[in-house]
Amino acid sequence: MLFIGLDDTDNLGSRGTGHLARVIAADLASDHTVLGVTRHQLLVDPRIPYTRKNSSAAILLDDREDTDLQAVAEQVRDRMRAEYVDGSDPGLCVAQHAPAEVVAFGKRAQREVVTHQEATELATGHGLVLMGLGGDEGGVIGALAAVGLAATGHDGRYVLVGRSRELSGLQTIDALLASGIAAVQTLAGCAVTAGLVKSDKLRPARRGGCSVLVVERAGEYWMPVKLD
Question: Which residues lie closer than 8 Å to 82 by C-beta, 6 or more apart?
């Protein structure tokens, strides 16, 4: 899998990083298989400058043998530069794998303050593409963290997977699975195979490397639960 991490691409008057990640994913879809776009929650702390909720995004691509990593990085970089908004501090990370140290960095970024220098030294040491693309370039922290967290397969939630964003109203389990969601289950982990699900703004969790929609009973239908 090819991981593309983005962070701090917005200001209070612009669309968020998740939106830009979906736009970039659409750009990449002409030449690559997009497996999804995920949102990853980082530490919320007054010592950390962030725009809204301090979350970063990762684009997940099916990595082929002929994938040109540098070309992908340049394509994403150029789009991010074209979409740059004043007051943002965007960062970009592109990696074909996430070493254990990068995964650990992502987890640390969820519970403690980490630094630009740590991110840069870690990416350099493992030969990962990490770029600051404006402002104070603080977004490199979240971009690297997003790659590490997405690589665990057990963090965050999908803001794009298959055609699930096209669904609305009450939908059958079969319709959800056909849209690209891998599984539907309860908070207790029990599989849900029948019934109707309220499908407006679905945000499946990333669990076991797959998109898993977690639901709870709400009268005669199932209601999605958002998990970080």
Answer: none
Main-chain dihedrals φ then ψ at residue 152, nearest 5 degrees: -65, -30
Tally of CA atoms within 13 A in the half-sphere of 188 that contains its CB: 4
SS3 content of the chain, % helix, strand, coil (to 5): 30, 25, 45
CA distance 80 to 32: 18
Given a cut of 90, whether residue 72 has pLDDT beyond it is yes
Angle at the Cα of 73 from the Cα atoms of 72 and 76, rounded to 5 degrees: 85
| Model confidence pLDDT, tens digit, residues 43-69 | 998 888 887 789 999 999 998 877 888
Rounded CA-CA distance 40/58 in Å is 8
Q: Which residues pair with 199 in a beta bridge?
A: none
d(CA 100, CA 191): 31
Domains annotated for the chain, with CATH where assigned, are 2-157 (3.30.70.2200), 162-224 (no CATH)
3-state SS, one letter per residue, for 64-91: CCCCCHHHHHHHHHHHHHHCCCCCCCCE
Tokens 């977004």 appear where?
139
Paired tokens of 1: 């899998």
Determine phi and psi for 120, rounding to 5 degrees.
Answer: -65, -45
pLDDT digits (tens, 9 = 90+) for 168-216: 999 999 999 999 999 999 999 999 999 999 999 899 999 999 999 999 9
Is pTM beyond 0.85? Reply is yes
